[in-house]
Amino acid sequence: xxxxxxxxxxxxxxxxxxxxxxxxxxxxxxxxxxxxxxxxxxxxxxxxxxxxxxxxxxxxxxxxxxxxxxxxxxxxxxxxxxxxxxxxxxxxxxxxxxxxxxxxxxxxxxxxxxxxxxxxxxxxxxxxxxxxxxxxxxxxxxxxxxxxxxxxxxxxxxxxxxxxxxxxxxxxxxxxxxxxxxxxxxxxxxxxxxxxxxxxxxxxxxxxxxxxxxxxxxxxxxxxxxxxxxxxxxxxxxxxxxxxxxxxxxxxxxxxxxxxxxxxxxxxxxxxxxxxxxxxxxxxxxxxxxxxxxxxxxxxxxxxxxxxxxxxxxxxxxxxxxxxxxxxxxxxxxxxxxxxxxxxxxxxxxxxxxxxxxxxxxxxxxxxxxxxxxxxxxxxxxxxxxxxxxxxxxxxxxxxxxxxxxxxxxxxxxxxxxxxxxxxxxxxxxxxxxxxxxxxxxxxxxxxxxxxxxxxxxxxxxxxxxxxxxxxxxxxxxxxxxxxxxxxxxxxxxxxxxxxxxxxxxxxxxxxxxxxxxxxxxxxxxxxxxxxxxxxxxxxxxxxxxxxxxxxxxxxxxxxxxxxxxxxxxxxxxxxxxxxxxxxxxxxxxxxxxxxxxxxxxxxxxxxxxxxxxxxxxxxxxxxxxxxxxxxxxxxxxxxxxxxxxxx
Length: 648
Known about the structure:
The N and C termini lie far apart (94 Å). By secondary structure, the protein is mainly α. Helix 22 (492-501) packs antiparallel against helix 23 (510-521). The chain has helices at 3-18, 23-36, 41-53, 57-70, 76-90, 97-108, 111-123, 129-142, 147-164, 166-181, 190-210, 216-233, 248-260, 267-287, 340-357, 363-372, 376-389, 393-400, 408-421, 427-438, 466-482, 492-501, 510-521, 531-534, 538-550, 577-582, 595-609, 616-626, 628-636; strands spanning 289-290, 295-301, 303-305, 332-334, 452-454, 458-463, 525-528, 557-562, 586-589. Mean pLDDT is 84; it is low at 314-327, 564-569, 571-584, 589-593 and 640-648. The strands form 3 sheets. A 4-stranded mixed β-sheet has the order 1-2-6-4, sandwiched between helices. A 3-stranded mixed β-sheet has the order 7-8-9. It has a two-stranded parallel sheet with strand order 3-5. Its main location: nucleus.
């Protein structure tokens, strides 16, 4: 070390020793040193420290400018101060008193020095990716024009960081970087722009899926903003901004217009269509659960009413087997609840986008996108519903295994729907009915319209309410049993059981009930064993009373069976042999009926009419569960072992 260096260091060390105890003497030493060694870093740096410790932000800025301008590529002490300065600038709203000083000092720096600080900080970050990115963000905030040229490099860094820590760098991209470049987006490599959009989309989708308090409207507004921004970077034709009031047909029409003017496999169409698909899919999945009432909906097969218009049921043409082969066109949706229309529209929009994206030109890239996004729970449910919509039963069975967090009630309902899709309910389908009735939800609900339509296949969104589920299960059984009315020698019990089931919706199936009554009156003998337990509908009781009264004059025997008071199996009574022996039911017939029999018949009719205000859905559900062995014998020809249809 030369004598000059020794003198410089001696004066600096004297100033350092006095800086805390005697700032004036320390300053005198530094003034002398500055005269002798004006270009020495140690002298200028110590002069800066004196002003810094004295909280003299203006003078400190002057010395800081000198050392930051002339000594940028050396001296660790300088970079400690630069880091302290940039850290204070990043947290201006929550600064300590020490950091407040740095913010004030920064304001006294010239713009050239301010900018050079950021440039040199970025150049010296080394492997510290987060520090480098934060410095870029800070520079863009302070010098917005630099974003035009520097943003591509920053975006590349973010993309690199997402490989190691996607959560951190996605948040930085979406919340800090994109707002800074949205007014003047830079030109960007298409691959990088698409990658950044995918990461932004993933960030917002995780918010929508994981955060119950997420404002989904705001999230989708931001997704569309990012889509438009990335489109600008790649010179795409602008898409439409997000608006909840815009019908999705408008978005689809815009997409089709862009598709027609784009080459095959266009990235522009791929990303616009993917965004529109996910938006429609989210709307569909969200609407499957009504947010206010907390009632879920399940897409199921509707029933086909083969009753001819305006005429009697006279022939086999009334049954599905006698109908024409159904069209291969997709089914319609029936309006069953207030939200059915919105559900069907969201589903069809998602299906339309899905079909476009699975064409040969997009399928490979779209599949990769789906793997990158956290959509598995939504996709599995949608694909299952799509399979049953198109009637692909085998595919739906395979997809059912992939669906997660599926309640047993929903699963039983979906299996039943698949069973009905094939045209004839199997024992598995009947077992599902028993399971559904054993798990009925507490929400009561109401009877649905349009679960049966004439002559074409249709789908319904069934709300998971008690009455709607009973109605669907009952309809599945009556649809199967009603076909047997045209078989020779259908049993009295079958006719009576159908009447019990048809009580659920008295304004429907009028022609079917008339046909049953016609069959009854045509018989020389008829016995209705289940009257006292299960028949309480006024219209059916009145018709039965009319038949009983008119047939007393004919050579026929119309016999009703009444149970002693308190023995009703509909109320859950015990059906043991001992109980049956203790309370034998009384048969009341028309053949040879005397005054006592007629009085007993009137008493039975009054007893049943007095029950007309009972809850019919519960009565019908009890009938199905308590008489399931008989119903199985009707449908399948023989009663299966009891253990195969245990209600759990």
